Amino acid sequence: MRLFRTAALSALLLATAVPALPAQAATLNVSTAAQLKTALTNAKAGDTIKLADGTYSGNFKTTVSGSSSAPITLTGSSKAVLTASGGYGLHLNGASYWQVQGITVTGGQKGIMIDSATRVTIDGVTVHGLDMEGVHFRNSSSYGTIRNSTIYDTGNDGRGMGEGVYVGSAGGTSDKSDHVQILDNTIGPDVGGEAVDLKEGTTGGRVAGNSFDGRGLTGANYDDSWVDVKGNNYVIENNTGKNTTNNGYETHTQQSGWGCGTVFRNNHSDLTDATGPGRYAFNITNYNASSCKVTIDSSNTITGGRSLTNPGIPVG
C-alpha cells in the first residue's frame, strides 16, 4: 500500500510540475491577398507575417492581439502594397500589441485605422492616395506609435479634409487615445487636412522630429496649419515645417478644459510662402496663465511670416 501511494504521489507531482508548453511562434510567409486575410485572422502572439513584394487588393482586418512580451509583427518592404478601393486599407480592430513595418498602404477611405487597441507600433510605412486620413488612432487606442514613416496625398474625396495622422475623435471627450507618439515622420505634401490633428479628450502624447510640408492644405474646415492641438499636455518638439496656408501650429478649446498644457520647443517654422491672415508659427487661441497654459519655448524659430506667436502669448 505504501509503495502504491508513493508511486501515485510521484506521478501527481510530475504532472503538476511540468506545465504545458506555449504554442511556438511562427513566421507566416504571405504572397496573396487571400493568404494575408487568413494570416491576420489566425495569427498568434509572437507570430511574424512576412509579405512578399507585390500588390494585395482588398480591405485587411484583424481582431487578434499579441502580448507585451510577444507582439505580432506584420512586415514587408515598401513594394508590398495593400491597395483598397474603399474602406480601410488595414484595420487593427481591438488588436493590441502589433508592429506594422515597412509596407505601403494606398487607396480606400483611410490607410491604417487603429481602434480600441493599445501598444500598436507603425514603423517605416508609406501611406498615400486616400480619400480621407492616412493613419488614425481611435476609440481609446493608447500608447500607440507611428515613426519613420511617410504620409502624403490624402483627403482626395473633395471635402477638404484628410489629416496625415489623426488622434482621437471630434465632438466629445470619451475617446482616450492617450500617450500616442508621432516620431520622425515625413508628412506631406498634398495632405488635405493638418499633418497632425490631436483631438479633445486625448492627452500626454508627443510629436517630435517630424518634417511637415503643407503644400496642398485646402484651408477648408479650418485646416490651415501643420499641427492642431485640441487635447491636453502634449509635447511638440524638434519638428520642421514649410508651406502652410496660414499658421504653423495651433491650439484650440473645442470642449471645456481641453487644448491646454502643450509645450512647444525647438520647432522651426518656414512661413515664407504663408498667405493667410495669421501667418504665425504658433497661433494659441485659448491661452490662460492659470487655467489653460501653453508653453512657447524660446528655442522655437521662424523664417518669414508675421511673428513667432499671436499677440499676448509669452515666449520663454
TrEMBL record:
Residues 1-25 form the signal peptide. The keyword Signal applies. Keywords: Lyase, Signal. Residues 89-166 form the Right handed beta helix domain. GO terms for molecular function: lyase activity. This is Parallel beta helix pectate lyase-like protein. It comes from Kribbella voronezhensis. The lineage of its organism: Bacteria, Bacillati, Actinomycetota, Actinomycetes, Propionibacteriales.
